[in-house]
User: Fold this.
Amino acid sequence: MMTSTIESLGDCRFYSRLPHMCCKGAGFKTDSDHIACDDKVNREFGSDAAQRDGLSFEVAGPREHIYYDSANTTAAIVTCGGLCPGVNDVIRGLVMELWHGYGVTDILGIRYGYDGLVLRHGHQPLPLSPEVVSNIQTFGGTMLGTSRGPQSVPEMVDALEQLGIDILFVIGGDGTLKGGAAIVEEIHRRGLRKSVIGIPKTIDNDIMYLDKSFGFETAFAEAVKAVSCAHVEAICAINGIGLVKLMGRASGFIGCYAVLASQQVNFCLIPEVPFELDGSRGFLEALRYRIARRKHAVIVVAEGAGQELLETKPTETDASGNRRLGDIGLFLKREISHFFHSCNIPITLKYIDPSYAIRSVPASPQDNVYCSILAKNAVHAGMAGKTNMLVGRWHDTFVHIPLRIVISDRRRIDPRGDVWRSVLEATGQPRNMSAAA
Amino acid sequence: MMTSTIESLGDCRFYSRLPHMCCKGAGFKTDSDHIACDDKVNREFGSDAAQRDGLSFEVAGPREHIYYDSANTTAAIVTCGGLCPGVNDVIRGLVMELWHGYGVTDILGIRYGYDGLVLRHGHQPLPLSPEVVSNIQTFGGTMLGTSRGPQSVPEMVDALEQLGIDILFVIGGDGTLKGGAAIVEEIHRRGLRKSVIGIPKTIDNDIMYLDKSFGFETAFAEAVKAVSCAHVEAICAINGIGLVKLMGRASGFIGCYAVLASQQVNFCLIPEVPFELDGSRGFLEALRYRIARRKHAVIVVAEGAGQELLETKPTETDASGNRRLGDIGLFLKREISHFFHSCNIPITLKYIDPSYAIRSVPASPQDNVYCSILAKNAVHAGMAGKTNMLVGRWHDTFVHIPLRIVISDRRRIDPRGDVWRSVLEATGQPRNMSAAA
Amino acid sequence: MMTSTIESLGDCRFYSRLPHMCCKGAGFKTDSDHIACDDKVNREFGSDAAQRDGLSFEVAGPREHIYYDSANTTAAIVTCGGLCPGVNDVIRGLVMELWHGYGVTDILGIRYGYDGLVLRHGHQPLPLSPEVVSNIQTFGGTMLGTSRGPQSVPEMVDALEQLGIDILFVIGGDGTLKGGAAIVEEIHRRGLRKSVIGIPKTIDNDIMYLDKSFGFETAFAEAVKAVSCAHVEAICAINGIGLVKLMGRASGFIGCYAVLASQQVNFCLIPEVPFELDGSRGFLEALRYRIARRKHAVIVVAEGAGQELLETKPTETDASGNRRLGDIGLFLKREISHFFHSCNIPITLKYIDPSYAIRSVPASPQDNVYCSILAKNAVHAGMAGKTNMLVGRWHDTFVHIPLRIVISDRRRIDPRGDVWRSVLEATGQPRNMSAAA
Amino acid sequence: MMTSTIESLGDCRFYSRLPHMCCKGAGFKTDSDHIACDDKVNREFGSDAAQRDGLSFEVAGPREHIYYDSANTTAAIVTCGGLCPGVNDVIRGLVMELWHGYGVTDILGIRYGYDGLVLRHGHQPLPLSPEVVSNIQTFGGTMLGTSRGPQSVPEMVDALEQLGIDILFVIGGDGTLKGGAAIVEEIHRRGLRKSVIGIPKTIDNDIMYLDKSFGFETAFAEAVKAVSCAHVEAICAINGIGLVKLMGRASGFIGCYAVLASQQVNFCLIPEVPFELDGSRGFLEALRYRIARRKHAVIVVAEGAGQELLETKPTETDASGNRRLGDIGLFLKREISHFFHSCNIPITLKYIDPSYAIRSVPASPQDNVYCSILAKNAVHAGMAGKTNMLVGRWHDTFVHIPLRIVISDRRRIDPRGDVWRSVLEATGQPRNMSAAA
Assistant:
């Protein structure tokens, strides 16, 4: 268990010198306000010493003193990686808080991810104002465009210098945040005074120390629609099988939540729980039994599930540096067809891959609210001179989390926890479809 | 701050004696697993002694040993009070977990709230099974029906005896849970061995020690639609004013979240923040200024807001024992019309009261999941022999909370907290529209 | 039956002199292309002479020759009366076709209905271009604003002259179109060369010689949601009654279609079918019987139904010149409550008036398409020098209809037709709840 | 042009002998009530002789006398072919009208299409009643299941005899209706007295002499969502291209209407309008030009478009006897990628195939109403002793159409008509991307 706190990152906070101007009715937060990372208590031993010295997170919110002079501050926003519901909400929230909350009117929208920070690529930054962003939350995607993959860190910091950017808000996932940390390092190396604030984006909901990532709730609500389609297709055919591939490279959150919301799924396959295809306890035999008994089945598979069953070279990566996954959806489609053909059982298999439909919708009201508060807190942090951190929500409180902690690992479904147990009960699938488990 | 813990309610837990049969893949929880109620840490003083001895909650989940013998157990479910999205999801979850998780097949649905527990009223209980509840989550309301108001506690316990009910699941709000506590008392007085497990229902999201109450997210998402209508009406007329009354008797959660999600509201009036109508700093003058400058305005008012402005007898109560509120919506409609008439400013005022539309919709996917897990944990608690408690989620963990703690107070919007500050920034309304504030 | 055709309005078509520039791939229509108004045939008599000489409508579409010189033409759009889904779609379609289809770039958006055509009221017209209207169809209402009521016709024609408007597109209902006809007359009186093209808007779907009016399908789809809420409220209470008031001043289309789509309504009351409250065959007795038998009931009442039961002065009118209706919804709410109270039967009555929610939503995809084609045809007509007419769809073909024919009467539900028979079957209500019927 | 009328099919109507019992408030229709198929009039020639003798359709509706004795009649319903929104609505409407309208209580649901009419396959028919079908319209698909492909006609008529079925309602497309016609022939050959009534189902909206087919409006509304996703994906990437494959084997209705509703598509490719890939006027060059100018593009392609570009054997057919199409979507995806690669232009291409999501949703309110009235009219026809016909809506009137006429050809988008012209204007695509055109 980690014992360091954000306090030890003292070097990444600048000297605050400006009175806060305009934060209405605010109970200011101080940097001494923390919440415990781990709130578990074991009453048996009459003590909770372990907790006392544990990791804690700085509570987010407006500070009484701010670091940057609003009149002379330039902020910039960059959105990277795959689409995710809510990015436009975050952009809108950042611009609104910078403009109305702090009087910062020099706000640049960097186009097409980190690509737009490499000036020789020629993507002109877009000046942002309340008028420009006023309605963007009604549309999916990101009004700034996005791209995958890293760019030259020195070139990006050159751009920050040439464009006079003081605070860079980076909206992106794992790879993007690592890029953000590298930018921070280069800024420090050059002795510059610039902040980098991360706003974690992952539709997979797999960022450590976050209750949830924005867009996740919208996403699994969309996934439920795909599951319903698969269910309808399955029950309307003789031995109908609906197979839905959902997001989830390393974590099965979208799959599990779609199962729990729809209550129509019979098998849920996720990266955290290995399974085997063959053998009397394998997935195919379980599916055969289900079809024999109920004449239809719905299967949800996360894209990262069952990778060990595929024969891909594990070293291949995509532009974002993510390991390129084999396509478990098409693989299962093929294997299921072959299996039932070999059993001489006619089936009707429909394969649905709704990924683009899920990730490109506008955020739901829940995510509207979450993104809006998240963005405000990112601005509070940036204006207070924080850097090398991201904003997140932990145990229902918005907090500051050091970048290096977050990108050290991923959040996963606990195969012994509430969620997975509920999934098993909802699907009725065997608890164990692997000799290894 | 309270210092007691659920441990002190030891008398309400029965002797466990049955091995748990069927909880798949479960990491069992023990009654020693707790989470701290307050996770705040002040790093300045290098100590968090206050927290160490603080209130903590038993973690919910399946227990290794259970109290009731599934084969001879009769469970019953009763739903009381106003409609709220998700009640059918909870009913479904209870039945599914009882039936499939524990093998309890004697499950009675009590009709029309506590009314159905007074046998001489003649409402026949409905036998529940997985088949009966299989699709009910696709419909709003409660398949069991509901009613308001208390009933004779001895008569209700008579019914529990006559129907042979061992575990009663009570889904309802403040008044209902008080009724549940009274039933527990009567059960103890008679020396019976019956459990009462509460599942808190309040569309207002105002139950203490709960991250959120089920249905709330669905509800404010519906409220956003009403706000959008009001916005469209307002901008399409000369000096158009859209006035929306939302739920929120004692707490303005629905109003505040609808404001944050829609970003289209100019005034948000909630019970927690008093305001005055008249005077140069009053609401009407602020509205006049807004109309003069922008030609339209959208107002959200929680039903419990501004009660001090109404001349009602505070002692009047409705069938549920709730104080009968004056209708602030119609009051404001009238006052605004008079005011602008007296100012000789023509306005077009549209008044929208979407309450029934909000409360009767089916639960959103987020609430589907929440209700499902909540219900499962209620069953785990009931089967383990717990009583006089409710299940809830606190700091992202499902917990057991003693009934008496929950009904002692209400959760409210903190006028100095994140949410209200975000609302003020979103509306641009004056921070203070009251001499008192 | 009318026998005149649009041909006899020859004086309202100007001399065409410009070759059509840009209508892609068009099969041009000529003014000789008509469709028969009445396509009924009685095979028994072996002849259909009646039809041959019957009313027919000019088919809409681009003409080979156009009247106005695009480079020197100014078009204007005005939207009047109550909100209706699809108005923004029509505005968008007009601008897009004028700009891209004909090269007309002088397009004025008149603000707030006919009010904006009275220049001394000071509403500046809004210049419209593809960029301005590009996304407006995603929002409800009208981006131009609207108002009710007539204005001085000479003043409005003064405005047309001063603003140099050649073609005025008028989007509105009955009263608005009558205003349009008056403007045409004044234009002719002054010997001006200006076109007025009507685009009929009525959420009630009650315009003569139109298959459907735009927005109607969106509207009744919204109404279905309100009916569902009422149904949920009704079934969840003991003797629950849900009462929904829907639009429909003179015609019960929205009510009837909401009944047919929802299949959850037990009584549908519309203006075309009188009913009585009292007596053994009256509505209240029928309702009592339904409640006794089924314990709940859902009632849909069109706002214009049962007016003969209300004691209002029939000469009162609103700003648009519409007869002011008594509020049948509140009246029924009161009467039903009294009746059951007098019968000593406890009921729970929920009254829902969703009108603003229905009329302010964005158009559904079906209406998007309909509005878009309707608008294009309005532009084709205007550019071809037509005037004093509206565009509509009759028997699935887009046509030109003379203004004077349309405003002479209203379309109504036929109490002996398909729709009403289906409603009776869906509700199971008595065919006759009136001594008069 | 056809000149025959349904009258000439006199042999397929039985002798009517029963008074109609229960059709409430009905204006009965007689078989002499017809509407003209063609309502076009050319005013230039002062005559419309052609029309007078033209094809006309019997008007649908309840008849004063009916053929079948309700007490001794068995009806059956079979649903065949691909899923389509609204099938459950039709089933519900048939059962409700049979049961409540005519007192027929022997109603069988045939399982899994024509497969279920081959008794040795062992699919037990499902007895249908109002209770069983009461809520099915809230779910997509068909509660009876479906299958593709023909079955032995004699075996199916054997089943009709063995199950005592008097009226068979057949819900299906082209192939299914041909099967229905073959069943009628076999019935006549055997001298039996059984009716076969078709209810045309085609999500492609391509049935001759039908204003629209049920489910079509729901379907293209879903397609709009997929187009929106593609649009978001396209605008968020550098040179982003969104490619959406939609239904439309022989007709591009879904594609065209999705284009018109969304107004976000730049290329629409349909079967009716051939195009070439290569050459200076080909599709790829037009796409390159669009990308160069606007940096993104959205393409909609109907599955039947561009088949001449694919090298498939035209004689291959699927189980329903439909010609197996090459996959134009994947083909275009490949060709576009190759083309831009060869041009050295980086693109981001997202391919979306939403077919299952489109076809499996519940019907929209518009389709709810349409299906409900369609089904009622099917029952009226069946009970009146009609056979060998289908019910449809033509020019806004419900009519009877002889099976043989309908299956003789398909309805198509007219490349010179309103719809295609509007599509060209909405997309801005070249009118001609083919040397052949």
